[in-house]
Amino acid sequence: MTDKIALTPKTHTTPPAKFSHGVKKGNILQVAGQVGFLPAEEGKPPTPAGPTLREQTLQTLANVRAILEEGGATWDDAMMIRVYLTDTGHFAELNEIYDRYFEEQGLTQVPAARTTVYVGLPKGLLVEIDALAVLD
Amino acid sequence: MTDKIALTPKTHTTPPAKFSHGVKKGNILQVAGQVGFLPAEEGKPPTPAGPTLREQTLQTLANVRAILEEGGATWDDAMMIRVYLTDTGHFAELNEIYDRYFEEQGLTQVPAARTTVYVGLPKGLLVEIDALAVLD
Amino acid sequence: MTDKIALTPKTHTTPPAKFSHGVKKGNILQVAGQVGFLPAEEGKPPTPAGPTLREQTLQTLANVRAILEEGGATWDDAMMIRVYLTDTGHFAELNEIYDRYFEEQGLTQVPAARTTVYVGLPKGLLVEIDALAVLD
């Protein structure tokens, strides 16, 4: 039997429901939908990194990365990144932020696949990202 | 060669197109997007469990679970649950229903990761859920 | 160490950001969100196959298939197909196109699971599709 392990970075806010921020079983790692919440502070409600797409996207990517690392993975192991935006007008800026971010990550493997769609998100949130990784 | 097996609970309505309600290949099990349709009845069109979020969500989760079980899996094997709602105003109630449901399922492992986004669905449907599971 | 391989059919337009059209690692193959862009032509911007749902869906499916094939897979290996439409009014037509297409593909295994939701897409695009495959 292979256990399913919860991946819960210390910095993360408590999920609003009975789900894990990330799980790993065997060589499969799944990251739950992350948003741009700053590291949790005792007694404060979850707070987005800022009102801009840039601030929220960078914080969201940091949150996804923390979960990958909690499971012993890196961006190099990511197979699929799902990006949920709220406004098609954000696509170009998201791509610019995304590209710059990944250039700085020092990937040694090819980038993950990606799907970007435009959905509704709770008020104040501009981006949500989840990821599927396959470890060695 | 590893066969891909279709998972088709007897209670399920016929899919509206050439897709499987669930498939399993090796240790990977994928559940197609389920909605809150009641068990199929001969000669009747697919009918949602009720007009409320609670009725539809519980029926949808039952429909996902039936497919997991058809493949020899349980909620404990679920890695990722994708929840599609139509209204951000439903988030709190969905979480309450979701938590209560999973408390009653007697999970022995950590809960699956989850992503929740707000999309359009066909008229009358308030929630759609799919799931990825990894078996032992 | 298992390498993650990028799957980039020659016909495909350059992705608008640092992601791969498809990746394969071990027996897992993930296809990025594809739209109905015609085969790339030097010096021309990406152009959809046509304005209709039929034209765009068939081109999108061809684009997904090209990535599967680049990874040594076929539709028979597809476990999950995610269809993003922009209009619930397109569901019946999408299903008719989808069924006809897959009848012509000569599948030897059961069809993949599928989730269809309605989202926003960039102007002019009516459908986006991604896929997860598990190879033998």
Automatic annotation (TrEMBL), chains A, B, C:
E.C. number(s) listed in UniProt: 3.5.-.-
Organism superkingdom: Bacteria
Keyword Hydrolase on entry: yes
CDD domains membership: YjgF_YER057c_UK114_family (cd00448)
Keywords, alphabetical: Hydrolase
Broad enzyme group: hydrolase
Keyword Hydrolase in annotation: yes
InterPro entries: RutC-like_sf, YjgF/YER057c/UK114
GO MF terms held by the record: hydrolase activity
SUPFAM superfamilies in the record: YjgF-like
This protein's name: RidA family protein
Organism of derivation: Streptomyces lutosisoli
Taxonomic lineage of the native organism: Bacteria, Bacillati, Actinomycetota, Actinomycetes, Kitasatosporales
